[in-house]
Amino acid sequence: MNSFQLLEYGAWALSALLGLWMLFDMIKTNKAYDEDLLTSSKEGEIDDTLVIDPTHQGGHQ
Amino acid sequence: MTQSTAVHGEKISLLRVLGPGHVWALGVGIVLVGEYMGWNFAVGKGGMIAALIACWVAGLLYTCVAMIDSEVTSTVAAAGGQYAQAKHIVGPLMAFNVGLYLVFAYTMLEAANAITLGYLVQTVGTMAGFSDVHDKPFIVLTIIFLAWLNYRGVYATLTVNLVLTAIAFIAILILFAAVKPWSNELLDHKALLNGLPYGWLGVIASLHFGLWYYLGIEGTCQAAEEVRSPARSLPLGTMTGIMTLLIAATMTWYVCSGLMPWEYLGQAVTPLFDAARLTNSMPLMVLLFVGTVFSTLASANGCINDASRAWFSMGRDRYLPIWFGAVHPTNRTPYRSIVFLVPVALVFAYFAPLDQVITFSILSGLLGYTYMSFNVILFRRKWPLGTIKRGYIHPFHPLPAIVLLVLCSVTYFAVFLGYGTQLVAMLVFFMVASLWFHFHRYQYVRRGDQFTMQWPRPQGY
After folding, report:
1. ipTM
2. CA–CA separation, B389 vs A47, rounded Å?
3. Chain segment B243-284, per-residue pLDDT in tens
4. Does B134 sit within 8 Å of A26, measured CB to CB?
5. CB-based contact, A1 to chain B, within 8 Å
6. Is residue B368 part of a domain?
7. Can you give the residue range of the structural domain that contains B127?
């Protein structure tokens, strides 16, 4: 096995890791929060005061 | 923080953290790869001069797109961009189609970028002396890594795009300066320019790939719900973006057409990198290789951002299952839409040939531009100047809309010359999808909820 093949295996492994991480996080989030809350976003909304998780307001506190 | 039920009044929305620089990076980032590769097939279709005419005619087409888009999107500040515009200005069926154009255009472009990146890594491996090197692991890694980045948050995603795009653009500027355009030391246009070998039909045919110089600049308005000041940032980011691309496109043509014969340039895979190789400068070669890789990554990254916003917006309005309209509570991204589109991009990147993927992307974009010409005329007629607040007013209306429509018609003919079957197949697909939406899906749409803009009643209604 040459070093480029190692690189290829590394790419496959990293892809699998990131893909599984996203899937795991998505399933975890879907279970942890109410569906009405997750789909509560409204088009063009600029009011940030009602959103949960105040640490993630992008400097709008 | 986790919670199992929603407290009354609590909402989760996308995060407003972006500035005009991010908007610029989103638009130019998607497109700049077209300067590094793809535009030069226009040379093969009609020669050097035809490619220059295509560059400027397509530039005019996209200047119209950018002006029209800047005006409309400065009033419809919603994720989904042109989809949301169509919903408010034309109607649900047009909006559904525009949403599909956007998702197809960006997902196909993302797949094309991943294929290209895989090819570049494979080429490096072969040049380094390795045998039996594969592109597939790097195609898959590109798509999944960038999807993961998008999943984690929009600010980091578009800040990465800003850095990648700025470096790729600066690389073009440095190459332009390095070939000394004021002298004939390296460039030899007199010997290399070959007129119009296929006449004016070649010029029309070259328009197909002339779009590649600018395809995707309209993607800036997908960030409408995530910029801090949409009415200011979107027009500013979009208009500076099209100016950047006009400069980069003209410089790219000038450098490449002065260094390579048209027979080679017309089928080269990486023309700007090849131009750097012809200067015999190792730092330039490294810089332009880095520029090629960065522009490809930035394009795929922006495409994931835009396709997911369009898909998310359609889900939120129940044009698609509402499940897609969810926002991640901590990352504040449309996470389900991002994850859902990953396998779609992978299938096209893994199994479809590059030219077919690119053509489907171009056709979807072209259908969107055609809609925009009608859209802005209806917009001005229903809400004339002064009736609603606009962040930007485009000049000479309705001339840009008419020019856009004419240029789109000519480009359809150009695409038909090379890819008539794909053009017809695409139109049939959208007709079938429209029938499905009209007779099946629209019953699930909450008709009152989808119109959110605080606009006065349109004139004539």
Report:
1. 0.87
2. 19
3. 999 999 999 999 999 999 999 999 998 999 999 999 999 999
4. no
5. no
6. yes
7. 22-444
